Amino acid sequence: MPEYQIVVCGSIVPDPLQTLEPISGPAGPALKNEMMLPAWLDPWAGHALFEAANLASKNPGSKVWLVALGPKAKLQQVMMTLAQKVPFELVALDGPAGGFTDASETAAALAEAIQAIPGLDRSRMLVFGGWESASRGTGTTMQIVGEILGITDQFQGVDEIKIEASGALRILERIEGGRHQVSLCDAPPALLGWATGNLPEPRNNPQVGMANMRTIMPALQKAKPTKVGADGLTFSSVAVPKQARDTKIVKDLPADQIAAEIVEWITNK
């Protein structure tokens, strides 16, 4: 069986059940009382991590790293819970995790941290991450990470990965029309931007948590301060999107006419 070295890129986000109110602060846009909000691992990155752990469990000798960028105090809070889910080794970067940071700067910091992992073998390396993000939802961060690392085999919107008898990676990517494209990748290195996958969130396992915490706490203590911002960018305003509802009930209209009316409604708002 092949042995993989799987690096998962993920950040933390405020608990979505909280009220998120954007404000303009001295350092630019931010969330009101952001440091007071409870946090959790970005759900897109969570799918990537759980899929990575599942793949590693099916291929003995494989290993999973989680490269996480966020405020050290918040990372510690999240890791206390996340550590009980699946085995991984943390690589922590102490920096901002808000949605107003530049994707290219974020990707450069993640790529640098990946390159610094001791003993990483590119011939066995898979880089996982979220296809999108609940905080940095540009849809470009993982792609830029791959480009910096020189990984040309990239797959976005992934829902499933299977290992063929030949060792090739069989990957299901989302495409238009609710369908999947089946791709075959002969061998690592490869980068996968995950959608929702098809695995449930693993149950808490205290034994896994205790094993993870032996490496998580030292990793947090030596987390590298990382400056990630949006230098040169200015925001005219930040606000919660306005809600609007305009209901129209019709029957037997062709799809093209419905689409045209929707476009007209959006254009006039």
What does this structure look like?
This protein has 269 residues and is α/β, with parallel strands linked by helices. It has a single domain, classed as HUPs (Rossmann fold), CATH 3.40.50.620. 29% of the residues lie in helices and 27% in strands. It is built from six helices and twelve strands. The strands form two sheets. Strands 1, 4, 5, 6, 7, 8, 9, 10, 11 and 12 form a ten-stranded mixed beta sheet that branches. Helix 2 runs antiparallel to helix 5 (206-221) and helix 3 packs across helix 4. The longest helix is centred in the N-terminal third of the chain and has 16 residues, at 43-58. The radius of gyration is 20 Å and the shape is globular.
Mean pLDDT: 83
Number of individual domains: 1
Number of helices: 6
Query: In one word, what is the shape?
Result: globular
CATH fold node name = Rossmann fold
- Supply the helix-strand structural class: alpha/beta
CATH superfamily: HUPs
Q: What does the radius of gyration come to?
A: 20 Å
The helix-strand sequence is: EEEEHEHEHEHEEEEHEH
Distance between the termini: 56 Å
Topology, number of strands: 12
Using the 3D structure, state the CATH architecture. Answer: 3-Layer(aba) Sandwich
* Strand residue percentage: 25-35%
CATH class: Alpha Beta
Low-pLDDT ranges: none
Helix content: 25-40%
Please give the largest β-sheet: 10 strands, mixed
